[in-house]
C-alpha cells in the first residue's frame, strides 16, 4: 500500500502547490481543480481502506497504480460487521469533503468550481452505487458480492 500512499501524497502535494500558486492559465486551473477533486476521491477510498484495516477485514490490494480503487473487499470471508466498518468511513469522508468543498472553497477561481463539480459528481456516484449496496447489507444482514473484477482470484458469485 506504500506505493498508493506515495502516489496520493504526491498528487495531494501537487494540488496544494497549485492552489497556493493560483495559476492564471486556464489549463493549469483545470488541472488544479481535477487534482483537488481527486484528493476528495482519494480521501473517500483511503477511508474505506482504514475502516477495513481497523477490523482486520480480508481485502486484496490493487496491483496497479492506475487502478481507481485501492483494494477489493472479500465478501465471502468477511463478516457483515466488517463490511459496515469498511463502508461507513467512505460515506463519512464523502460528507466531510462535501462540507469542506461547499463551505471552504472560494467561489471565484475556475479550479474551485471544477473541484466542487468533481466532488458533487463523486458524491452522486457514491449515493447511486455504494448507497444501495450498503442498504442491501443493512436490510438483508448479509454482504452482497462486492469484489472488483480484475483483483486477484475472486470468483464473483456465491456458492451455496
Write the layout of secondary structure elements.
Layout: H1 2-21, H2 26-54, E1 59-61, E2 71-73, H3 80-104, H4 110-140
Architecture overview:
- The chain is mainly alpha-helical and 160 residues long.
- Helices cover 66% and strands 4% of the residues.
- It is built from 4 helices and 2 strands; from the N terminus they run ααββαα.
- Strands 1-2 form a two-stranded antiparallel sheet.
- Helix 1 packs antiparallel against helix 2 and helix 3 runs antiparallel to helix 4.
- The protein is elongated and about 50 Å long.
- The two termini are 33 Å apart.
Low-confidence stretches: 153-160
Q: What class, by secondary structure content?
A: mainly alpha
- Binned strand content: under 5%
Query: What strand order characterises the main sheet?
Result: 1-2
Distance between the termini: 33 Å
Q: Please trace the helix and strand order, writing H or E for each element.
A: HHEEHH
Mean pLDDT: 88
Helix content: 55-70%
Shape: elongated
Radius of gyration: 17 Å
Largest sheet: 2 strands, antiparallel
Q: In DSSP terms, counting alpha (H) and pi (I) runs of 4 or more, how many helices?
A: 4
Q: What is the number of beta strands?
A: 2
What's a concise summary of this model?
The chain is mainly alpha-helical and 160 residues long. It contains 4 helices and 2 strands; from the N terminus they run ααββαα. α3 runs antiparallel to α4.
Amino acid at each position: 500500500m506504500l506505493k498508493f500512499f506515495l502516489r496520493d501524497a504526491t498528487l495531494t502535494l501537487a494540488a496544494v502547490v497549485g492552489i497556493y500558486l493560483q495559476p492564471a492559465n486556464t489549463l493549469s486551473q483545470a488541472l488544479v481543480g481535477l487534482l483537488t477533486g481527486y484528493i476528495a476521491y482519494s480521501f473517500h477510498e483511503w477511508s474505506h481502506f482504514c475502516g477495513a484495516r481497523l477490523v482486520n477485514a480480508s481485502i486484496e490490494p490493487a496491483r496497479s497504480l492506475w487502478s481507481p480503487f485501492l483494494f477489493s473487499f472479500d465478501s465471502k470471508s468477511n463478516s457483515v460487521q466488517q463490511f459496515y466498518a469498511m463502508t461507513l468511513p467512505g460515506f463519512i469522508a464523502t460528507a466531510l469533503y462535501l462540507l469542506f468543498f461547499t463551505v471552504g472553497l472560494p467561489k471565484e477561481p475556475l479550479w474551485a468550481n471544477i473541484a466542487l463539480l468533481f466532488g458533487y459528481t463523486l458524491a452522486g456516484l457514491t449515493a447511486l452505487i455504494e448507497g444501495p449496496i450498503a442498504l442491501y447489507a443493512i436490510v438483508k444482514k448479509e454482504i452482497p458480492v462486492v469484489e472488483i473484477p480484475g483483483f486477484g482470484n475472486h470468483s464473483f458469485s456465491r456458492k451455496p
